[in-house]
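Thread title: Can someone regenerate the structure for this chain?

I was given the following input by a collaborator and told the matching structure tokens would be attached. They weren't. Posting the sequence so someone can regenerate them.
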Amino acid sequence: MALTSRIAVQGPPATDPEDYLSSALGVIFPDDVTNQHGDADHELVYISPYLRRPLRFALADPDAWADRRLFSHYLWNSSLLLAEFVEAGTLRLPSEFGLGTVRSEAFDVAGLACLELGAGTALPSLMAALLGARDVVITDYPSAAVMGTLRANAAANAQAEVSPRGTLAPVTVEGHSWGELATPFASAHRGRYDRVFACDCLWMPWQHANLQRSLAWFLSPSPSTRAWVVAGFHTGRAKMRDFFDPAALGAVGLEVEAVWERDCDGVEREWAWDRGLEDVSERKRWLVVGVLRRRADGVEG
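Best answer:
Regenerated them for you:
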């Protein structure tokens, strides 16, 4: 089933010519995949066959350009993919990922403390909270508009009656700018999380080092801890790939356990540093999935 099949948009009909064109792209170009979903005027509905009711998301409408250019006011395909992985792993649905090298239970969050960086709509975090995580913290850039919408979405969806198990982890929303580790929140939460998520956070290469620092900071020192990094190729492979550079990750004490590519229909292939000239419509279909762990030697640098 296509990755985007669980998403529906509800709200008033489009009135702007640009909106009409955007909504018609799937008809005009049937092979084109939508990789970002929603706007401030429409509600997003996420339907999982395992939840007792759909999840509903409002999207932020930030006024400041500095906030809008971060694109946290959309739901991206990377969040859809990680949400499905968390669901498959925690509910023990029969699945294999990473070209058969990663079993679905590797994405089991039951009983684990989870934190998401650059959360946007926080779909993977909310799925974790509903499926059995012990504790969930949702973070994003500390903009008033983004934080307000995140808190409203968490309150609307983080409810035990939605969970297939009738359970709910405590969910909190905090502001965090990557790499800023001297804040009260960062100081109080260092090394507290078994799983850290980051979805569609790789398109700013100038922020890779800051993101790596935050991942390493919040991850538990346990050898079983993992960070899950998922991102779409829509902005281009060259902007993303250096995040996975072994030396850069090693500088903060992390290493790649597994990395692969997956398209919106579930087809997988090996991770490639360079695939030459990639068609824009084709690369929008693909995402990279990375599983990071603490370096085996426990040494940074």
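The chain is about 25% helix and 25% strand.
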